[in-house]
Specification:
With 213 residues, the protein is α+β, with helices and mostly antiparallel strands. It is built from seven helices and five strands. The protein folds into two domains: 61 residues; 127 residues, 2-Layer Sandwich (Alpha-Beta Plaits), CATH 3.30.70.1730. A five-stranded antiparallel β-sheet has the order 2-3-1-4-5, with helices on both faces. A hairpin with a 2-residue loop joins strand 4 and strand 5.
């Protein structure tokens, strides 16, 4: 059983992070006995079903979800991306496209956008009761944080392919529009400035009138 578990782990690792070159790699299950082969098959099936259920849970709990093409992203850059997204209450998960397609089936209206290259999903995590600034209540934070990361880290290859917003599959263009929406704090700051400006002009005018008297 120990060897079967290690084999399943290796196979899933290769599927999630495929090797470059000609795509050939050593398959530890190739020399397995019939009994070990059956164990490997059953474990693989069970593990894939577990992955699908996990993704289904993420889709159900997220306010929005973004499909990201990360082809060419270095491990060090991915680590940085995960950390910065996590600080904003955004999760990031790499998934094999076949498993992702199964998990997404029937979970939103419309058609799944074309998922080219190596795909990951970025999703909003439920907000904690003690932290209202996190992504749980803001459906635009996920595309915005992916866009901001790419904008502030020049040379990093990362592209938005589309996603799920308000229960519908949407394309890249819609997700990019959402990414451009400022945060709630920025919008409130701009509103406060606009409200203050007329009062400031009035105060100046009153002061000028007073000087002339």
């Amino acid at each position: 059983m120990g060897r079967a578990v290690l084999t399943v782990f290796f196979i899933l690792l290769v599927e999630e992070y495929p090797l470059g070159g000609g795509g050939e790699f050593f398959h530890p299950g190739a020399s397995a006995t019939p009994q070990e082969g059956n164990e490997i098959h059953m474990l693989l099936k069970s593990k894939k079903e577990e992955i699908i259920k996990d993704i289904e849970g993420l889709v159900k709990e997220s306010k929005s979800l973004v499909f990201v093409n990360f082809h060419g992203l270095k491990v060090s850059d991915e680590t940085k991306l995960r950390r910065e997204l996590r600080n904003q209450g955004v999760g990031y998960r790499v998934s094999r496209k076949t498993l992702l397609a199964r998990a997404l089936k029937g979970k939103a209206e419309g058609e799944i956008p074309s998922l080219l290259g190596e795909v990951a999903i970025a999703y909003s995590k439920p907000a904690r009761l003690d932290d209202t600034s996190r992504s749980g209540g803001d459906a635009t934070v996920v595309p915005r944080e992916i866009y901001n990361f790419q904008k502030t880290h020049k040379g990093i290859v990362l592209s938005i392919l589309g996603g799920i917003f308000e229960g519908k599959f949407v394309g890249k263009e819609m997700m990019m529009e959402l990414a451009m929406i400022p945060t709630r704090e920025v919008l409130l700051s701009k509103l406060a400035f606009l409200l203050q400006s007329p009062m400031q002009r009035l105060a100046i005018a009153v002061g000028e009138v007073a000087k002339k008297k």
